[in-house]
Amino acid sequence: MAGRQALDAVIVGAGLSGLYMLHRLLGQGMSARVYEAAPEVGGTWYLNRYPGARCDVESFDYSYSFDEDLQQEWSWSERYPAQPEMLRYLRHVADRFELRRHITFGARVRAAHYHDGCWTVRTERGEEAVGRFCIMATGCLSIPKEPDIPGLGEFAGEVHRTMDWPAHMDLSGQRVGVVGTGSSGVQVIPILAEQARHLTVFQRTPAFCVPANNGPLDPGTEREVKAAYAERRRHNRRSQVGFVRDDNPRAAFEVGERQRRDEYARRWEMGGFALLGAFADLLTDQRANDTAAEFIRAKIRDTVNNPDVAERLLPWGYPVGAKRLCVGTGYYETFNRDDVTLVDLAKAPLETVTAAGVRTREREHRLDTLVLATGFDAMTGALERIDIRGRDGLALADRWAHRPHSYLGLGVAGFPNLFIIAGPGSPSVLTNMVTAIEQHVEWTADCLAYLRGRGHRSIEPAIEAEDAWTAHLDEVAGQTLFPRAPSWYTGANVPGKPRVFMPYAGGLATYEETCQDVAAQGYRGFILT
Questions:
Q1: What domains does the chain contain, in order, with CATH numbers?
Q2: pTM summary value
Q3: pLDDT tens digits, 316-349
Q4: Helices then strands, each counted (H, E), the chain
């Protein structure tokens, strides 16, 4: 073996979750090391470098709250931070708190096995680390979905995924095709349209997209936010979505049609996810949801000049917000350009990629470069690509063969001392991820301190508690519109993946209260030895 370390905790991943987890454990006097596949910190913000990559939560909220000096000294340049700025921020955090010396970069973890009260973690290049605790901070959107596109290997031009975009690429003068119109596609398409000679967008499912209304942050706004940052952060933690979006407590049909339309229009101008807070029942009542969906469809018709193109861009067949709402800049306006073509694959299915381009049932589209914005194997993908084995060699992939099982999204029965940060069974992707991550990291760190202080060697969920939580997840999701959409929330985008709504749909504030109550009762539902 190239090397072996004995630690209190081994952490996998140096993104937002892994960096804060490492900082907390070091602060508690524990020995910990992070193993990261990439050559740098950042996680998804290192990997997703495609043109237009940007956060869809405001910068003042999509940032750490755990250190007052950090949040006061860092100045964001825009309302919604772009990928380079997010990466600079995370590099700053790693340097400011001297975390790099506790991180092994370029070390992709291939296995994590539990034996004799310890976890042995192995990387693909031969490092080994042994720790009492193993903490998976692998991210919800870190493994790209393998594209199921016939003939892809036949293409004579270049193929690029948004997830692993080259550092320097000049598309000027090229005919570029993009497959996929989810969040990544919505962000990259307007930028590529400006760079390419011609852009062809291959749309499988139209997206609901709201405007970011992004822009530079003026110093006055920054001063106001920082003066009241503590209160803003408290509101975020008490919110069901992890940030304050001025949610309206009234139901959609408690007001008249004109007042409803005015509320949607006001929130459209606010930008971002504000629209989903317009009425309290938008994600629980289909009739209410239809009013928001029709408002967005009307905006698309108003924005896109060609009526035929506009109709092809209209999303139908699933509730708005049941798939992740896309937040874009100039997305629909892009289709007013003469050098942009929209191909509706629902009407003209993609038959195969050829050496020269993409052939649909109607014609061949000749291309020089093909861009794949085809999404992720979300929430479970990164975990199932590691050979994680618990007691008696039980494989997590086998345990999750029919669906992911966990207690609170934090631990799995049969896997002692294994913790998952922001994984399936927790609010994670339905919230501001940074707020959700901080809650998970802090709960986990407090749990480890509790175990150490009382002389416990191990903790794992009782199977009864896990089963009850799994049933609760389904019950709560069933009270919403989320399961009505074939989305990556349900694994529907990955062939063969179990179809089950994976996040906790009850809200972050409710979830945190549950976690606090579990801890206050001596970690109810867990077995401590």
A1: 3-143+377-528 (3.50.50.60), 152-372 (no CATH)
A2: 0.97
A3: 999 999 999 999 999 999 999 999 999 999 999 9
A4: 16, 20
